Amino acid sequence: MVFDESAWVALGFIIFIAIVWRKVSAALSSLLDNRAEKIKTELNEAENLRAEAQADLKKYQKLQKEAVADAKRIVADAQAAADRIREAAAEKAEESIKRRETQAKAKIAAAEAAVISELRDRATSLAISASKDVLAAELDADLSASMIDNSLSQITAAKS
Questions:
Q1: Which of 1, 9, 132, 142 has its CA 20 to 30 A from that of 29?
Q2: pTM summary value
Q3: Collapsing DSSP states into helix, strand and coil, what is residue 140?
Q4: Dihedral through CA 88, CA 94, CA 97, CA 99, nearest 10?
Q5: Residues 6+ apart with CB under 8 A from 76
Q6: How far apart are CA 132 and CA 112, in angstroms?
């Protein structure tokens, strides 16, 4: 087999391509390996960020549950306080009503007593006035003097 010029050129070209391919493939391989490593690092970082986000989400969900529980407890405490205040106000109102009722009854009793006393005074005044008129019309001087003496003796006896 005889090699002519074109065979030598072809063989040189193939050797050149093989050398270039080796260098280029090493460079390409290195470039692709670096790119793959960078992507792998970014994926790991994204996974770490995702894990942190999950942890934060769980933490905030726990905080939300605690806040909801606190809010429910606060509402329940406020409701209980409102019930206690309502009951205390009802008791105070009831006591006030009883006290006013007692005062009103006392005022009514006092007014009744005043009216009865006034009626007695008027009745007494009327009786005395009527007695004076009757006595003045029917009494003579001797009977009048004996009645005065009798009254004076009763008064002195009552004083002793």
A1: 9
A2: 0.43
A3: coil
A4: -80
A5: none
A6: 29
